[in-house]
Amino acid sequence: MDDGLAANTSIRQEVEVFKNDKDKPARLLHYLKQYYTPEKKVIIFGLYKKECAWLETFLYDKGYPKVIALQGDMSQDKRTQAITDFKACNKTPLIATDVASRGLDVQDVELVINYTFPLTIEDYVHRIGRTGRAGKKGLAICFFSPDSKGAQDEKAHAGDLCKILRDAGQEVPKDLQAIADTSGGNKASKKKAHPLFGVHFKSAEQMAALEAKKVHTKFEDSDDE
């Protein structure tokens, strides 16, 4: 991790450690019920497009008709309209990946929820930096799943996350510190060095083009992508 990396001290950070990913949807609804109103700008970050699409459907079905997912492969017109609607609170919460949110500059975001931890600690700091701007206070909630069966090993980030929290004067949860004490820091703090970089963010056309360039080896009885 870059020694100069630091979180905005105007942001209150809360980290909830999950033993089971299946508990995350209910906790997301809990936090939205506690903090969300239609007049508030809320950003929910997922790790990849499919997760964001699922979150959009899930929240719509749970009574959030204004929810919108900012997709990386949206047309420019649709992306512009989605951002315009979000800025005016016509559409909120906004769900996005790190890639889809590039260049998104919106004031008065009151809450950021990290539904899935990003690939790097730098992206975590960038995500939560969407709130707490221009001297205002902000709230960032992070779901942390050390035993997740998902796309990455989240516990590798525990040490760096503890440092970010501590340096910003935030409370470090005991269960997060315990994970950090036994797992160490992230060994791929730069996204382009991360083995998963690009896997979930490329369009179907890009992935097809890449696959066409590969020398394919057939593995019997394999469920891998």
Task: Please give a structural write-up.
- The protein is α/β, with parallel strands linked by helices and 225 residues long.
- The protein has one domain: Rossmann fold (3-Layer(aba) Sandwich), CATH 3.40.50.
- 33% of the residues lie in helices and 14% in strands.
- The chain has a six-stranded parallel beta sheet with strand order 1-6-5-2-4-3, sandwiched between helices.
- Helix 5 packs across helix 6.
- Pfam families: Helicase_C.
- Residues 31-180 form the Helicase C-terminal domain.
- This is Helicase C-terminal domain-containing protein.
Give the arrangement of secondary structure elements.
Layout (H helix, E strand, L loop, with lengths): L10 E7 L6 H12 L5 E5 L3 H13 L6 E3 L5 H12 L6 E3 L12 E6 L6 H8 L9 E7 L13 H10 L6 H10 L20 H10 L12
Parallel strand pairs: 1-6, 2-4, 2-5, 3-4, 5-6
Helix pairs in contact: 5-6
Protein name: Helicase C-terminal domain-containing protein
Pfam families: Helicase_C
Organism: Polarella glacialis
Coarse shape? globular
Radius of gyration, Cα only, in angstroms? 18 Å
Under CATH, the homologous superfamily reads P-loop containing nucleotide triphosphate hydrolases
Total tally of structural domains:
1
Structural class, please? alpha/beta
Average predicted confidence as pLDDT: 83
CATH topology: Rossmann fold
**Pattern of helices and strands:** EHEHEHEEHEHHH
Supply the CATH class.
Answer: Alpha Beta
Ends distance: 30 Å
Number of helices: 7
Please report which band the strand proportion falls in: under 5%, 5-15%, 15-25%, 25-35%, 35-45% or over 45%: 5-15%
Named CATH architecture: 3-Layer(aba) Sandwich
Quick one: biggest sheet?
Answer: 6 strands, parallel
- Poorly predicted regions are 199-225
Q: Into which percent range does the helicity of residues fall?
A: 25-40%
The total count of strands amounts to 6
Strand order of the largest sheet: 1-6-5-2-4-3
